[in-house]
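Design review, sub-item: ligand-bound model
Attendees: FS, YL, KQ
YL presented the inputs for the nicotinamide-adenine-dinucleotide complex:
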Amino acid sequence: MSALLVTGGAGFIGANFVHHVLAHTEHTVTVLDKLTYAASAASLSDLPTDRSRLVVGDIADAWLVDSLVAEHDIVVHFAAESHNDNSLDDPKPFLESNIIGTYTLLEAVRRHGTRFHHISTDEVYGDLALDDPQRFTEETPYNPSSPYSSTKAGSDLLVRAWVRSFGINATISNCSNNYGPYQHVEKFIPRQITNVLTGVRPKLYGAGVNVRDWIHADDHSSAVLTIVERGRIGETYLIGADGEKNNREVIEMILEQMGRPADAYDHVTDRPGHDLRYAIDSTKLRTELGWEPRFTNFAEGLAATIDWYMNNRDWWDAQKAAAESRYAAQAQR
Ligand code: NAD
Ligand code: TDX
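KQ shared the predicted structure:
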C-alpha cells in the first residue's frame, strides 16, 4: 500500500486514473489540482473519503508542492494545459503549467527522493503520413508541432535530464488519444456527442482525414499503474491500443449510434498546423511489462461513452456553453 499524489486528478484522465486506483488497489490518493476551466470536482464526488482527498492548488507553487511531496510515496503527474486549440490562442498558460509546473515537481521529488511518473502524449513525436507503415516507438525523434505539444516535449526532456543529472526515480509514458467518461466537452468526441444532444450539427475540421489512435481512458489508467508498479526507472513507455480511425469515421459512428443520418455534420475551418496522423507501437510495454488493453472494441467503448454523456448531463451542461463560446472566438471552429 502506497500514498499516491496525483496531479491533475480532477481532469479527464486523472479522474479516470483515481477511480481505477481506488477500485483496483489498496493505495491512498491525494489529488493536487488547480481546478482550471478543464477540471471538474464532480468527477471525484463519489470517492471513498477515507482513502482520497482533493487539495486545490497549483503545481507551480513550490512551497505547496514540496510539503505534499514530502508526505507521499509516489507522484503521478497528469496536470497540464491539454487542449491544442487553446494553445494556438494563448500559449502562456501552457508554458506555466506544463514547463514550470513540471520543473517545480521535479525539484521536489529530487529533494525527497520520491518515485515520479510523468504522463505525456504521442504528440511529442509530431505526425506521420497517412500511408507510412511505421508507427511511433520509444526511439522516434521528438518533432512537436503545436504550442501544446512543444511544452509537453519540453516537460519530457526536463524529466529525462533530472533522471540523468540528478538520478531521480522517474518513468515517462506517452499515450495516444483517450476517450471515455469525464472528458471535457471541448475535445473532439464529447464535443460531437454533446452537439448532437443539444441539437447542433457536429463539426469536422477540414476534410476530416486526420487519423487519431484511440484508447479508452481506463486502459490508459491500467497501463500507468503497471508502469508505476513495475516500470524500469529512467525508461519511457509508449501506451496505445491499436485504435487508428480517421475523424470522419468517428463522427459518422457517433451519428449512427445516436440515430442520426451519418452525413448530418458540417466541415469547418481546419486547425492551423493540424497533425495528420498519430499511431503508437506499444510493443515495449506489452512485452516487457505484460500490459494489454481491455477495451479492444472501439464501437462498444464509444457506445458506452455516448451513454455516459446522455446520463450525466448535469456534469457537462455548464461547461458546454463556455467551451462553445471559446470556439466561436477562435476562427469559426
Ligand atoms: P484535462 O485538461 O482534462 O485535465 C488537466 C487537469 O490538470 C485539470 O484538472 C486542471 O485543473 C489541472 N491543471 C492544469 N494546470 C494545473 C496546474 N498548474 N496546477 C494544478 N493543476 C493543474 O487533461 P487530460 O486530457 O486529462 O490530460 C491529462 C494528461 O494526460 C496531460 O498531461 C496530457 O498532456 C496527457 N495526455 C492526454 C491525452 C488525451 O487524449 N487527452 C493523451 C495523452 C496524454
Ligand atoms: O470539433 C472538433 N472537430 C475536429 O475535427 C475538434 C474539437 C477536433 N477535431 C479534430 C482535431 C483532431 O484531429 O479531432 C481530432 C481530435 O482533436 P482533439 O480532441 O482536440 O485532440 P488532439 O488535438 O488529437 O489531442 C488530444 O490527444 C493528444 C488531446 O487533447 C491531447 O491532450 C493529447 O496529448
